[in-house]
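Input sequence (240 aa), recorded before submission:
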Amino acid sequence: MTLADQVVTSGIKRITRTILRVDDAQLARVPAHGPLILVPNHINFLEAPVLYTHLLPRRMTTLAKAETWDNPVLRYLFNMGEAIPLRRGEADIAALRRGLAVLEAGHILAIAPEGHRSNTGKLQRGHPGVVFVALKSGAPLLPVACYGGEKFRSNVTRLRRTDFRIVVGQPFYVDTRGAPAKGDLRQHIADEIMYQLAALLPPFYRGYYSNMDAATEEYLRFEPPARSNLFSIASAKQAG
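Predicted structure, token format:
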């Protein structure tokens, strides 16, 4: 990272800390080394700069919609962060291969399976591209839930800071146990990944994945001491 990039990044972090009250304590749970697929939800434009700047000095590369590069300011910022342009609505194999190269180099690749911003904070159905990357790389996935940012626009007009909460879950691997991950199975695995993310969110935010009784993890593998992110929900039901 050049000196100019360091100055810009520091400035972005200061701005986010000014307009947001960022609860980032759980980011300490993100491994300091090794390949990692970060799986965040996607409410609006805030997640990328908050996660990128608050994870430093560990660098995070993200897949972002190709249209972002049409804006010269955003083009500079995303190139500075070595983001990968992704053509939405198609199987952009070239972008996924660049993502695999990031993981092969031992870095963090962030993939928001929803693709589109929700703006409301409620989860939309995840797309299966993350499954392709997980299987090809063999890298662990780490769900990271962000919420509160959906109130930013209404708060900023009232000159209020917005509470931005980050919850880091337990890591896991995708394991098809020899079954070919195609079509419906790939989507099924994407839904299993999204349920792990939904488990980190308060019920209001779970959206498409609100019915946690439908959650499965047949094709996910947790290596001790990690355990399913669904565990806390199951424990709460037993206690109730």
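Checked by second reader. Strands lie at 20-23, 36-40, 60-65, 84-86, 108-110, 141-147, 162-168, 173-174, 220-221.
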